[in-house]
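User: Here's a chain of 182 residues. Predict its fold as C-alpha cells.
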Amino acid sequence: MNLREYFKKMKGSTRGTPPRVNNSEIFWSWTGAFIGIAAVGWLNLQFFSGRDITLLIGSFGASAVLIYGAVRSPLAQPRNLMGGHVFSAVIGVICWKLLGQNLWLAEATAVATAIAVMHATRTLHPPGGATALIAVAGSPAIHKLGFLYVLIPATIGPLILLLIALLVNNIPASRRYPEIWF
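Assistant: Prediction complete.
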C-alpha cells in the first residue's frame, strides 16, 4: 500500500450516518440503563458507603450503553460483559503491582494486554479496557483493594447489570437478550 492509499483510508467509508432507532428502543435502552446503574449505585450506597471499596466504577457506564442500548451486539453478550471485566480487572491489578512505579507503562500495558486477552478468550468488551485502566490509574482506595478489585466491583457489578439486562431487555416483544450465552 502506498502513502496515498494509506491516508485515503482515513476518509472513512461511504455508508452514511447510523440508522435512527425508534422511540420504543430509546425508551427500553433508557429504562434498562437507569435501573441497572441505579441498582449498582444503590447497593454501593447501602453496603460500601464510607469504606475504601466501591461497587460502581466508570466503565460500567460504557457497559450499560452496550447491554441496554446495543443488545444484539456481540460485544454486549453475557460472555463478553463478564469475561471482559473480570479478565481486564485481573490484568489491571497485575500491571499495577508489577509496573505501578512507572504509571504510564502500567497503564499502557494494562489496556493493551486486556485487549489481547479479551481477543484471545473471545470476550471482547470495550469497557473492559477501562476496567483495566481504573485498576492502575484509580485512587489509592482502588489500589488498596488489590485482587479484591476483581470481585468487587469487576465481577459483582457486571453481574447486577446482567441480571437487570435479562429482566428489562426481554419485556418488549421487539427485543431479545442475550443473543448468545457462550
